[in-house]
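Working notes for the structural subgroup meeting. M.R. asked for a predicted model of this chain before we commit to crystallization trials. I am recording the input and output together here so anyone reviewing the notebook later can reproduce the run.

Input as submitted:
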Amino acid sequence: MPVLMPFRHKLAVTKQRRNAVCLPPILIAGAESAPFFMRRFRSFLPLILLIGVGIALLSTGALNRFRPETLAAEQASLQLQIAAHPVVAAVLYVGAVTLAISTGIPGVVVMIMAGGMLYGIVVGTLLSVIGVTLGALILFLASRHAFGDHSHAHAPGFAGVLRKGYLAHPVSYTFFLRLVPFFPFGGVTVGLAWLRCPLWLFLAATGAGGAVMTGVETALGAGLAKNIGANRAISAELLADPKVVIPLVVMGLLALVPIVIGKWRSARAQAGAPPPN
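Returned structure, recorded in token form:
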């Protein structure tokens, strides 16, 4: 028996090695890719959670409470509650805007307008800018964590052209994307995260550039509040109210910014191009 023990041990080791070598390649590849998949999943988990919260907000209709026609019926009572609890009301409003912006869902403009209706232009703009900046920062950090550092990776097609142009003029690109209402706010935030926009530049563009659109939307909400206060409802007279018309005109002019810049660049390119033969 003592003589057979080393032989049995060698036989067992040989079988283990043979089984390890004979594993199908697909199982080996799956075992190697599992840790990579889990790392990528953990990277995307914060962004997935934010998207899930956004879907829940849209499916439950939570934003409908901030629609102008809904606020028209409750404006007086809401303003009384704000006057009774100004700090709590301000924190709740900033928190609601932060939550909505961080999920990247569309239609947050109704909340910004609600701030103008309830707080006026100055206070409403200040509170909305705080909420928008905080919410955008959360979405930006979650997106950048998901994408990782891909600055040296090849980007195909239009994505590569966009990244090349952004890296050449990061400041102008960032402020341009934040100022123009044509681009969705959440989509721009995710795009800037993918472009590896520096954090200081993102905060500056969101706080300063985003304040322009937030101020316009808040002024529009304040104009609606004036119309509702006079007519006890939203009426066609608001189309003749300068406090409503002027913000709409400013939003329209901002939407034309890409066209103006495109025309200007084309004119510069033609002026610098050699004359045709």
